[in-house]
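TL;DR need structure tokens for one chain.
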Amino acid sequence: MKIARHLLHNPGFAFIAIVAIALGISTVTTMFAILDTLVFRPVPGIENQEQVIRVRAGFSPEHLLPGFSQVMGNDLRANSRSLEGLFLTMSRTIIFGDPNKPVRVCGADVTEGAFQTLGAQPMLGRLFTKEEEASAAPVALLSHELWIRKFRGDRNIVGSELVLNGNPTKIVGIMPPGFRFPDQIDIWLPWRDDGEPQKNRLGFINPAWARLAPGVSRAKAQTELDALAKSFATQHPETDKGILFRVTHFREGGSDEKDSALLLLLFSVIVVQLIACTNVANLLLARGATRFREMTIRSALGANRSRLIWQMLSESFLLGLVGSSIGILASYWILDGISAVIPSDMPSWMQLTIDTRVLVVSTAAALISTLLFGLFPAIRLSKVDLHAGLKEGGRGMTDSRFASRLRSHLVRDQLALAVVLLIFAGLSIRGFLRDQNQLPGIDPRNVFTFRVGLPPLQFKENTVQPQFFGALVPELVKIPGVETAALVDVLPMSSHPYLPIASFMQEGKPKAKSVVDQPYTLRRTATPGIFAALKIPLVRGRLFDDADSAGDDAQVVVVDEAFAREYYPNADVLGKKIAWSPEEHGKDKEPVKWMTIIGVVGSVIPASGEKMSPRVVWEPIRKTKTDNFYTGVLRVHAGIDPASLAERVQEAVLRLRQGVPIYYPRTMEDVYGGEFWERRFFTITMSIFAGAGVFLAAIGIYATMAYHVSQRRREIGVRIALGADPRHVFAMLMNHGARMITEGLGIGLGVAYAITWLLARYLGNLVAFDGITYAIVAVVLTLTALAACWLPSRKATAIEPMDALRAE
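>> reply
TL;DR here they are.
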């Protein structure tokens, strides 16, 4: 209580110190909550998660595909000794409920032993039996979230039947809260083939998972998979040559860009915390100088040095307790703000919350910080010279040259750290704006998109899909306000787990000996109106029309400029013929079907998850044969809100086919913005940390200048009494602050350039030097620091000489 009362006698000092500590601890708490979410936090329902791995296939470490085919998965499972319980998953659209108000959720088929491999157990009911898995019996497991959301936690649902995709299905269990493996899954089914077994080794669409065998490391498992890849290439040279496998942690989906962003955020937190610690240490040193007489008297009355240190550390701990508590509370609000920029369809485990582990780290950071900012001032100020102190009498202790320089250096270092932090934030913001403002190749304004499909297990007749999708576009055009409508298999610029990447052959060029040696491109199928709906410009040639999609196979295609530059750099691409590799479909014995290139359109920038260049072949949707799922694209007239069309689009779909819902209703601007959510997330977070650092530096400069003025109050009073111009006094004090600012800016700019230059050599997405960013940072920090110096200097010119002398 005595310590608290003592601090309350100095409210200005206590307030500034608490604010500095709160800002530092809030950044630590926020950052670790982010790291905990992305890296450390266990996914609910999975045992021994460090042993669970994901296996991916690809043609290079930089070009990994979602997974592999069932055939290749079976081969891996039979031949691997390092992996146990390897299983595949396949995403499914599940439709159930009232045909007039159908519900669509994301489901997944899982191969045998999936839940046993994960160590997952249901909270109600049971898992699939081996017999059910082997026969693809009509049984299902529900997620806890779906059970609560749609069935209100009714326990009687276990053992009952639901009609899923038109098939009566027995619900055998409810999985525990939070378990939605692999991601956002609400219903699990035993693996089944759509029509015929998968015989194509090149179907890289099924994510694969396994558990490391006892005593096996990831490195050892990787070595075995490298050997198996070579073995498979020898056995199946036309399909497997050049294919490699990679083992990663089961939830690793990070990129170099994401990893570097996390690294920069971690660096930013350390910088902010250092600024906060030096700030409070500076305040304690300044305040300690005014307590010289108090320390002298306590020492004279018998207090030893350790007691003096303990007293000052007790004050530091109290400040740390209050500031840290406020900082942790503030981090809840900060995380809520950051969460607002995360799309709702992000991984189910990605919830920015503060749990016990985060609180433990924050508490540890608070204790360490308290020692950092409190111990040195306490040791420094506990050195009491009784003779000198008592001789001073009633006068306050003036600053020693060493103490004054030390505080100036601390302020300079704070400012330098703030420069470094602001440079990183500025480079992040500039990079984000540069990426977001690049021409996308489409016009996302006034466009509504949605997903719709006919699940193959429910709609098995081959004639249903062409009839439905053939009638859908004319029905969509009838909606008031719609200018044009189209369908496309995968929407450009949208991240999709199964990108339609296909190998192809060029007429007149020899066929490659293996698939890996063949050229690749993105393959998109769409109705003719897609180019008008997205305003993708025609560069030369013509677009395909309804007549071009009349047959069973496409005869013509349109390519983008990137494709033309890549594969026909010295020739006119129009009139050239290409064909999809027969191996793509497991039909290598069928005759090659050539397609003529009739037009070239502008390139659309790739989605953030795409590693390849945005070269695309556009193929017309065939009227006689279609896929089961497409994305609808509607361009509306100016002045109409695209998002308002969702209900009318659903009505149009239900008029054609009852029980078919639309899902993922979004505007194209939302799709476009969603591709940059990671960059926006990290940029906003970095900006928050940079703002905290600048604010802390400004507080430090202001507190140091205010103390500097108070120490020179008698001198200033004498100068004014002797006729000194207040403007000269003001200039003298501002000059003192300007020296600190100049030194801090110089050091900070040099350090920032050195660090960014070093990181840019390893992180290709980071620019080492951006003149505009450096100039803006220098101007902003200079103005902020000068403003922090201006107020105390301005007050100094209003000192009354008699008041200053009387106070002494």
